């Protein structure tokens, strides 16, 4: 089916219950664009959105309040369709941030200023920072740790044995994959080219434990996960039903 970019949201909302917006990572969407997303989707559909990279990557939380305020104000146009907002941080090398301590000096005051009427999730790519004390910091502010399926993050069953991964009143899963590895095989994104069934089975097992606790859970797939995000969603749904 050939769709124009402006038709994507309507198509998604006919098949899915939520979508993670990637475009907000690159720039703050104007109010009329956000209002258009709402108008094109049915009640109950949810938009998660990436917080702009100007905040997480360029300024790394320094002097970013004007941009952050504008972003939140514009995203409010979604009304009851607004879901979690994701703080997706890059991997910080030692020459940028030598340890978690300087990051926390920036992060803690930012956390204290978070408005309570929004939901936030955080993706951190320095796996050594995922420890009980850092997760406790997120828990104090009801920020969900984004659980990421990617080569540099330990499997969820390993993490779940070490720490309590629930830090907010919802859970947030991102099936990202290895971009460089899969782009060496394809750039068409029209079919599954990797069998991730064993890995999905492990993640579904842990995810079901979270859902069983009554925790609202979001899961999003990238084309880079297995070659075709819609196919991964279908495979996930089939495995979920089989597990039940």
Describe the structure in your own words:
The chain has 11 helices and 7 strands. Strands 1-2-3-4-5-6-7 form a 7-stranded parallel beta sheet. It starts with 7 loop residues before the first helix and ends with a helix. The chain is globular and about 45 Å long. β3, α5 (100-112) and β4 (120-123) form a beta-alpha-beta unit. It has 244 residues and is α/β, with parallel strands linked by helices.
Report the biggest beta sheet as strand number plus sense, adding barrel if it closes.
7 strands, parallel
Number of helices: 11
**What is the gyration radius calculated from CA atoms?**
18 Å
Structural class: alpha/beta
Multimeric status of the protein: single chain
* Termini Cα gap: 32 Å
Mean pLDDT level: 95
Taking strands numbered 1, 2, ... along the chain, how are they ordered across the largest sheet?
1-2-3-4-5-6-7
N-to-C series of helices and strands: HEHEHHEHEHEHEHHEHH
Helix content: 40-55%
Give the overall silhouette. Answer: globular
What share of residues are in beta strands? Answer: 15-25%
Low-confidence residue ranges: none
* Annotation, overall tally of beta strands: 7
């Amino acid at each position: 089916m050939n769709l124009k970019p402006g038709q994507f949201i309507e198509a998604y909302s006919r098949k899915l219950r939520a979508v993670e917006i990637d475009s907000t990572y690159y720039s703050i969407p104007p109010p009329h664009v956000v209002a258009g997303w709402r108008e094109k989707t049915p009640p109950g559909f949810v938009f998660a959105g990436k917080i702009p990279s100007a905040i997480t990557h360029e300024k790394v939380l320094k002097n970013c309040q004007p941009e952050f305020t504008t972003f939140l104000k514009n995203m409010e146009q979604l009304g009851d369709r607004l879901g979690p907002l994701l703080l997706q941080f890059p991997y910080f090398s030692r020459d940028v941030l030598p340890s978690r301590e300087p990051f926390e000096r920036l992060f803690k005051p930012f956390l204290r200023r978070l408005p309570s009427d929004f939901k936030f999730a955080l993706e951190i790519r320095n796996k050594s920072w995922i420890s009980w004390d850092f997760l406790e910091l997120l828990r104090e502010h009801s920020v969900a740790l984004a659980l990421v399926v990617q080569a540099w993050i330990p499997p969820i069953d390993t993490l779940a044995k070490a720490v309590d991964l629930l830090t907010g009143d919802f859970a947030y899963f991102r099936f990202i994959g290895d971009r460089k590895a899969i782009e060496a095989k394809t750039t068409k994104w029209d079919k599954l080219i990797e069998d991730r069934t064993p890995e999905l089975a492990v993640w579904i097992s842990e995810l079901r434990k979270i859902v069983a606790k009554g925790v609202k859970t979001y899961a999003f797939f990238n084309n880079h996960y297995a070659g075709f995000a819609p196919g991964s969603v279908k495979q996930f749904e089939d495995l979920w039903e089989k597990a039940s």
